[in-house]
Design brief:
It is a single chain. Residues 1-11 and 13-18 have low confidence and may be disordered. Strands 1-2 form a two-stranded parallel sheet. It starts with a helix and ends with a helix. The chain is rod-shaped, with a radius of gyration of 29 Å. It has helices at 2-20, 28-33, 36-73, 79-104, 109-135, 160-167; strands at 23-26, 140-143. Helices cover 73% and strands 5% of the residues. With 169 residues, it is mainly α. 8% of the residues are buried. The chain contains six helices and two strands; from the N terminus they run H-E-H-H-H-H-E-H.
Length: 169
């Protein structure tokens, strides 16, 4: 009898916990792509990236020209001149690589610009999601854009469009 009462209590407790879980689903990728400011920021970053890549390519072209020139004249050079040329090529290549890292590295100019443009938009979106979930009593927000392992969700819990609407105000 005692066992039966414990099982019944556990069943009621478990059912209460399942019904108490209040969650919503949001597709953050769709939310971000609906924002003009986000799309403009991505365009700016892409333009900068192309400009920076052109500059980096020009630096590596200098290295290649110097190397090709060296290869053509190599047989006519003395040992000391060859070593100087080789060192100049290595130095120029190191400079080009360093320049590339300054622009495209994890702490590079492009990443800093990305943070400057995108971070305020992300903060605004996340703030609206948090406010929305608190206002309507949701305890958990699942981002289906970032989690490819979600196999199914009901459209009843997808609040992506409502978040997009909330961001318009």
């Amino acid at each position: 009898m005692k066992r039966m009462i414990l099982m019944f209590a556990a069943l009621i407790f478990g059912a209460g916990m399942v019904s108490a879980q209040n969650y919503m689903v949001v597709n953050s990728e769709k939310v971000f792509k609906s924002l003009t400011s986000y799309n403009n920021a991505l365009e700016q970053i892409e333009t900068l990236s192309e400009q920076y890549q052109d500059k980096v390519d020009a630096k590596f072209e200098e290295v290649e020209k110097l190397y090709n020139s060296y290869m053509q004249q190599r047989s006519a050079m003395g040992e000391t001149t060859r070593q100087q040329y080789e060192q100049a090529i290595l130095n120029l290549e190191a400079e080009a690589t360093e320049y590339q890292e300054e622009l495209f590295g994890t702490d590079g100019t492009l990443m800093q610009k990305r943070m400057e443009l995108i971070e305020p938009i992300q903060e605004r979106v996340f703030s609206v999601i948090e406010s929305f979930s608190k206002k309507y009593g949701y305890d958990l927000v699942i981002d289906i854009a970032a989690n490819p392992t979600v196999l199914y969700y009901s459209t009843k819990v997808d609040f992506t469009d409502r978040i997009i609407e909330a961001l318009k105000y």
